[in-house]
Write a structure and sequence with these properties.
The complex is a heterodimer of chains A (352) and B (304). Helix content of chain A is 75%, strand content 0%. Chain A is built from 14 helices and no strands. The longest helix of chain A has 31 residues, at 14-44. Chain B is 73% helix and 1% strand. In chain B, strands 1-2 form a two-stranded antiparallel ribbon. In chain B, helix 1 (2-29) runs antiparallel to helix 11 (235-258), helix 2 crosses helix 9 and helix 6 (140-158) crosses helix 7 (160-170). Classes of the chains: A mainly alpha (352), B mainly alpha (304).
C-alpha cells in the first residue's frame, strides 16, 4: 500500500523507466540463467560450454543449410503449438498434439502409399495434406466426443490417447503398412517422389515451413479479427459469460478441438512428405509435447509461437551439435530444453 | 490357472502405478495436480536402480528412488506454489525433464544386472488355495504398498493432518484463518506425492523388471494421475484402478504366452483404453467430487 502511494508522488518519467529496465533485466536473466546452469552442468562433464554455445550458434546461423535445419525443426513445433494454442484460447488444454500428429502421419502415409502414388504432385500433395488433417481431426474428435458427451477433462484424455496413437502407428508399421522390401524392419514403404514436398536449394528445408507460417497467420487472423475468434476468446476467458450470451459451448469445444487436430495432423503429413518419406513408429515423437510447450512459452499467441518454436528448433539442432562436438548423447539437450522452460514458467510472475 | 496368473500379475505390475497414484492422490487432495508424476517415477526408477547396483541393497535402492522422486517433485512444488506457474504446463515440463535427465544418467546402467527384490511367499497364508499365490507371494514393496492404502485412508479421513490436507485443497482461507500456512501444507503434500511416485518407479526397476530401460515407465505416471480422478480421490478406489491397469498388462503377457494371434500392439493399448473407459463410467455416475482448488486448474486458470 505504502509503495503504491509513493509511486504516484514521485516525479513522472523517472521510476517507470527504472521499472522498465528492471523488467528487461529480469527477462534477460530468465533467458540467460538456464544456459548458465546448463553450462555448469557441461563443465562437470568436461565440455567447454562457451565453445559449445558458439558452435551451436554457428551451426544454426553460420550457413544456409544450418538455418534451414532450424526452420525445419521448428515447422512441426509451430503446427502442434497451434494445436495447443487455439484450444487454449477457448479454455481447453489439448496435450494431444502428439497423438494427433502421429495419426495424421499415419493417414497421410496410408493414402500416399495405396491411392496417391501415381498422381501428379499438384493433385497428390494437397490430397495427402487433406488425409493428414483428416487423421488428426479424427483423433482429436475422440477427445472432443469424450469432452462434450462424456464430460471428461480433455487434458487427461488427450495424454492417454497419445499412447494409444503411438501403439496404433506401431500396429500399422508392423503389419498392414509394412514395407515388403524392408527385410522385416518396421516401417512403411517409401512414398512416391512425386509426393515429396519441394525443397529449397542447398538445404533440406521444404515448403512445409511456408504452410506452417500461413496457418499460424490464419489462426491469428481468425482469433484476433473475426467474430468467431472473438466468441472463442470470450468462451476461454469467461465461460459463464459465454453461456449467458447463448453460445453453443459444446459445439464450439467440439470444432475447436477438431481444428486443433487438423493442424497437428498436417504437421504429421509434413513430416512424412517433407522429411522422412516413410512412416516409422518413432515419426514425430515428442513433437506434440514440444509444440505444447512452445505455445505455453508464447502465451498461446499464434504469431509469437513462431518465435518460440524457432527457439526450440534451435535447441533441437543444438542436440546434434552436442552429440557430434562433445560426445554427449543428444538426449542431454532435453535437459537444456527443460531448464529453459522451467525458467520461463517460473519467471513469468517477475517478468510482467 | 490363467485367472490366478492374471490376478497375480495384476498386483505385480499394478503396484508401481498404485504407489504413484496414492502419491498423486495426496498431492491432489491438497489442490495440486502433478503431471510430473511421470518424471518422478522415472527418477525413482533410475535412482533406485543405481543405488541397488552400487550397494546391492534394494531397501536402500527403494529409499533412494523415493528421494529422487521427491527431488523432482520439489521442482514442481517450487514452480507452482512459489512462482505461480501453470500446473499442467509445469507438470508436462517435469515429465520432459525426467525423460532427459534419466536418459542421460541412465546410459551406464542399461546393461547392469541386479538381484533386487524378489517375491517372498508368506508362510501359511500363501498355502491358501487360489488366494494364497495371488495375494501372498509378492515382493516386500508390494506388501508395504498394500498396507499403505488403509494407512493413507486413515490419515486423510480420520486425523488432524488429513483435515489440514483436505482443507488446503478445498478452502485455503479456512486453513489460513486457523493459523496454518496452506502453502506449506501443499508443499509437503506434493513432496510426499513425489516420494511415493519415486518408490513406485523404484518398484518397477528393482522388483518388477530388475533392469533399467530408457523411458521405462511408459506413461504409468500419467495413468496414475488419471486413476486418481477415476478414484474420486479415494485411496482404496485408486488401488482398485491401479490393479485394473495391472490386470490389463498381465492379460497382455498371458495372451502372448498362450500364443493367441492378437497383435501385441492392441494389447499394449488395452490398459490405456481401460483407464479411459473407467473414467467415463465414473463421470457418468457423477459420483466424483473434485477438490475445489483442483477444479480451478481444470477450468483452465491461466491457460488462456
Amino acid at each position: 500500500m505504502k509503495t503504491q502511494t509513493g509511486t504516484i508522488a514521485l516525479p513522472a518519467g523517472r521510476w517507470p523507466s527504472f521499472a522498465r529496465w528492471k523488467k528487461r533485466g529480469v527477462q534477460t536473466m530468465i533467458f540467460v540463467a538456464p544456459f548458465v546452469l546448463y553450462g555448469i552442468f557441461l563443465l562437470c562433464y568436461g565440455v567447454n560450454p562457451v565453445d559449445l554455445y558458439v558452435s551451436m550458434v554457428k551451426s544454426a546461423f553460420g550457413d544456409l543449410y544450418g538455418f534451414g535445419e532450424v526452420l525445419l525443426k521448428a515447422t512441426p513445433f509451430v503446427l502442434t503449438g497451434l494445436a495447443a494454442a487455439l484450444p487454449a484460447k477457448a479454455g481447453l488444454v489439448n496435450v494431444g498434439g502428439e497423438g494427433q500428429l502421429a495419426i495424421g502421419a499415419l493417414f497421410a502415409t496410408w493414402f500416399a502409399v495405396f491411392y496417391l502414388n501415381a498422381m501428379p504432385a499438384w493433385l497428390g500433395i494437397p490430397l495427402m495434406l487433406i488425409a493428414g488433417a483428416l487423421g488428426g481431426a479424427l483423433w482429436a474428435g475422440l477427445v472432443a466426443v469424450l469432452k462434450v458427451k462424456g464430460r471428461l477433462n480433455e487434458t487427461i484424455t488427450s495424454v492417454l490417447l497419445n499412447y494409444v496413437a503411438t501403439f496404433t502407428v506401431g500396429f500399422f508399421v508392423h503389419g498392414m503398412l509394412k514395407d515388403p522390401d524392408s527385410f522385416n524392419w518396421p516401417f512403411s514403404p517409401e512414398i512416391s517422389s512425386s509426393l515429396r514436398l519441394p525443397i529449397v536449394d542447398g538445404t533440406r528445408l521444404h515448403i512445409g515451413f511456408v504452410v506452417a507460417l500461413v496457418l499460424a497467420a490464419l489462426v491469428w487472423f481468425v482469433l484476433a479479427k473475426t467474430r468467431l475468434g472473438f466468441r472463442i476468446r470470450v468462451l476461454g476467458s469467461n465461460r459463464l459469460a459465454a453461456e449467458r450470451a447463448g453460445f453453443n459451448i459444446n459445439k464450439m469445444y467440439f470444432w475447436v478441438l477438431i481444428s486443433a487436430g487438423m493442424l497437428a495432423g498436417i504437421a504429421g503429413m509434413i513430416e512424412i512428405a517433407g522429411i522422412e518419406g516413410r512412416l516409422r513408429a518413432s515419426t514425430g515423437a515428442n513433437f506434440g509435447y514440444l509444440g505444447f510447450l512452445a505455445a505455453m512459452m508464447a502465451w498461446n499467441h499464434p504469431l509469437r509461437l513462431i518465435v518460440t518454436a524457432f527457439l526450440l528448433g534451435m535447441i533441437s539442432v543444438a542436440g546434434n551439435t552436442l552429440e557430434i562436438g562433445s560426445g554427449l548423447p543428444s538426449s542431454s539437450v532435453n535437459i537444456l530444453m527443460a531448464l529453459v522452460l522451467f525458467f520461463i514458467l517460473g519467471g513469468r510472475r517477475w517478468s510482467r | 490357472m490363467i485367472l490366478a496368473d492374471i490376478l497375480t500379475g495384476a498386483i505385480r505390475s499394478g503396484t508401481s502405478v498404485m504407489l504413484a497414484s496414492q502419491g498423486e492422490l495426496v498431492s491432489e487432495r491438497a489442490g495440486v495436480i502433478n503431471l510430473g508424476t511421470e518424471g518422478s517415477m522415472l527418477g525413482g526408477a533410475l535412482g533406485g536402480f543405481a543405488v541397488t547396483v552400487w550397494t546391492g541393497n534394494p531397501w536402500l535402492g527403494a529409499l533412494a528412488g523415493g528421494l529422487c522422486g521427491l527431488l523432482i517433485a520439489s521442482i514442481h512444488a517450487f514452480l507452482v506454489l512459489s512462482c505461480g506457474a501453470n500446473q499442467l504446463a509445469t507438470g508436462l515440463t517435469i515429465m520432459f525433464f525426467g525423460m532427459g535427465v534419466t536418459a542421460f544418467f541412465g546410459r551406464g546402467f542399461v546393461s547392469e544386472q541386479i538381484v533386487g527384490f524378489n517375491p517372498v511367499a508368506l508362510p501359511f497364508l500363501s498355502d491358501i488355495p487360489f488366494l494364497g499365490p495371488v495375494l501372498f507371494n509378492h515382493d516386500p514393496l508390494t506388501y508395504l504398498s498394500i498396507l499403505l492404502v488403509p494407512l493413507l485412508w486413515f490419515v486423510i479421513f480420520r486425523t488432524r493432518i488429513g483435515i489440514m490436507l483436505r482443507t488446503a485443497g478445498e478452502r485455503e482461507e479456512v486453513l489460513f484463518a486457523s493459523g496454518i500456512n496452506p502453502k506449506l501444507v501443499r508443499y509437503l503434500a506434493v513432496l510426499a506425492g513425489g516420494f511415493l511416485a519415486g518408490i513406485g518407479g523404484a518398484q518397477l526397476s528393482i522388483a518388477y523388471t530388475h533392469a533399467w530401460v530408457e523411458n521405462m515407465t511408459a506413461g504409468r505416471g500419467v495413468v496414475a494421475v488419471a486413476l486418481v480422478i477415476f478414484a474420486s480421490w479415494k485411496p482404496a478406489r485408486a488401488m482398485l484402478g491401479a490393479y485394473l491397469f495391472g490386470a490389463a498388462q498381465a492379460l497382455q503377457l498371458t495372451v502372448q504366452q498362450q500364443g493367441y494371434a492378437i497383435s501385441p500392439f492392441f494389447l499394449f493399448m488395452v490398459p490405456y483404453l481401460l483407464t479411459l473407459l473407467a473414467l467415463l463410467i465414473v463421470e457418468r455416475r457423477k459420483s466424483s467430487r473434485t477438490p475445489e482448488a483442483l477444479g480451478k486448474v481444470f477450468a483452465g486458470e491461466g491457460s488462456g
